[in-house]
Design a protein that fits this description.
- This protein is α+β, with helices and mostly antiparallel strands and 340 residues long.
- The protein folds into two domains: 96 residues, Phosphorylase Kinase, domain 1 (2-Layer Sandwich); 232 residues, Alpha-Beta Complex (Aminoglycoside 3'-phosphotransferase, Chain: A, domain 2), CATH 3.90.1200.
- It has nine helices and ten strands.
- It has a five-stranded antiparallel sheet, covered by helices on one side. A three-stranded antiparallel sheet has the order 6-8-9, covered by helices on one side.
- A hairpin with a 5-residue loop joins strand 1 and strand 2.
- Helix 4 packs parallel to helix 8, helix 6 packs across helix 8 and helix 8 runs antiparallel to helix 9.
- The chain is globular, with a radius of gyration of 20 Å.
Length: 340
Amino acid sequence: MTAGLDAAVDDWLAAHVPGLVPPLTFDVVSGGRSNLTYRVTDADGTVRALRRPPTGGVLSTAHDMSREWRFLTALAPTPVPVPRPLAYCADPSVTGAEFYVMDFVDGTVGADRDAVRDWPAHARRRAGDHLVDVLADLHRVDPEAVGLGDLARPRGYVERQLHRWRRQVHRSGAPDPKLLDTVHDALLARVPAQSTGIVHGDFRPGNLSFAPDGTVLAVFDWELATLGDPLADLGWLVSTWEEPGDTLPPTTAGPTAAPGFRTRAELVDAYAKASGRDVSDLPYYVAFSRWRSACIGAGVAARFAAGVMGENELPVEELNRQVLRQSEAAHDAVRDLDRS
């Protein structure tokens, strides 16, 4: 059986996924630091996707399959393009963890420049245009209207996130979190007024599937989704949006330094027009995004160093250097808030 799945999965899928015809074949589509995704092909050649948590190094509150499933099912009837949810298994005895099944969306994930190498310039432009429209559509969804209103919390989104990621860094065993703690305190002292909407938490081309013309077919990876200030999504997207000639690395690598993509300024202007939102506090959310990226990276590096994440393409020392660069960038960005 494929790593991360037990033989009992076949029987469970046959009993719970309408139209599925055994026998099944499983192929890993993505995995490692995040949730594992499998391509599930049945005897009729129909392809579906299965998502489950990684098999080791899982921190508390992370990799919540029920959360992903809830957001998928809530957003399926809305204009936000998500894979059609098919079945959810809450019983960890089936394969060691909860999991869910959804339609397989056969498009191009914008993971890096290689992914868009064959795209013509107009498709790259369309991708930038449409992902902004999709993000604005997401932020227009009323959480109450789609059954997510009970996820609201009395404490503000930013305060919750600052508490959560600082706690995760310290629990992960990161060796030297002092600079991250300094930036945390600076961000906490400067929290802007917040609005409330659905926040994806990791909205970027690498979590989107695109058609050949650049149209967004689906938004994936809802494991960090919550209710909070929508500018947090825009700040994260901007922090990942690399331009030619950048000296500061993006929080997450992507394809956007390739010719034809929007600039960051164009991206922000398009979002402001599409959403009607005031984006004047965006620099705060970019600083917050760099800090959050450094926290995530520190936890990943600590788990690799502890040997609970398997092999990695980069040595732990390089991962730690990347964390330091993002920490320093976040520190600089916070200081710039006081000068603007």
